[in-house]
Each structure stands twice: as C-alpha cells, then as structure tokens.
Amino acid sequence: MLGLLLIYFIGKWFYTLADKHQKNKWLFAILGIAVYYGMTIIGGFIIGFIAAMSGSEAIFNLPDVAWGLMAIPIGLIGMWLFHRILRKNWENNPARSENELLDETDFS
C-alpha cells in the first residue's frame, strides 16, 4: 500500500513539472516512476556487489524486504537527480510556442 502512495506522489511530482513547462505530462510521469524503479534495482545490485567485494556474508542472509528497503534511498536519489536535471534544462531552455515560431521573421 505504501508503494502505491510512493508511485502516486512520484508521478504527480513529474506530472506537475511537465505541466508547468508545457511538456508531455503522462510521458514524464511514467518516466519518473521508471527511473525510480530502475535506480532501485541498480541500488540493489550495487549493495550486493559491495557486500561481495568486502567479503561480508551476513548481508546475503537478509530477507528480500531488507534488500528492498536498503535500495529505496538510491532510487529516491536517482529520481530526484533526474527531476532536477529536467527542471534545470527546461528552465534554461524554455519551449517556444507555435505562434512565436510562425511570427519569427529572422530568415538569415
């Protein structure tokens, strides 16, 4: 149940960002959720790799829920970085409307 709330708020966060900058709202809402889950999976692999390289066998006896809880912060950080990159890019390069493109007379 908490996972569904997390998906909702991540999607809403990216949806409002895309809406504010007049981009495809649903595409970026779904992309934000996909980045979160992708980074969570990568985070699990990173934790497992670090544990294997350090020779710590105790971490491999943990239940799957513990692995998921350890990977959630990596997913959240990756999603936040993606949101920040999109926001900075869209603020520095504002979209031009179709009216501006049609009215532009710079034909050089």
Would you summarize the structure shown here?
Helix content is 78%, strand content 0%.
Please describe what this structure looks like.
The protein is mostly helical and 108 residues long. The protein has one domain. 78% of the residues lie in helices and 0% in strands. The protein has helices at 2-20, 25-54, 64-92, 98-103. Helix 1 (2-20) crosses helix 2 (25-54) and helix 2 (25-54) crosses helix 3 (64-92). The longest helix is centred in the middle third of the chain and has 30 residues, at 25-54. It is elongated and about 70 Å long. It starts with a helix and ends in a 5-residue tail after the last helix. The mean pLDDT is 86.
Average of pLDDT: 86
Report the oligomer.
single chain
Tell me the number of structural domains: 1
Specify Rg, calculated over alpha carbons.
20 Å
Beta-strand content: under 5%
Taken in chain order, the helices and strands follow as HHHH
**What profile does the largest beta sheet have?**
none
Structural class: mainly alpha
Backbone shape: elongated
The overall strand count is 0
Catalogue the unreliable spans: none
Helix content: over 70%
Distance between the ends: 58 Å
Total of helices: 4
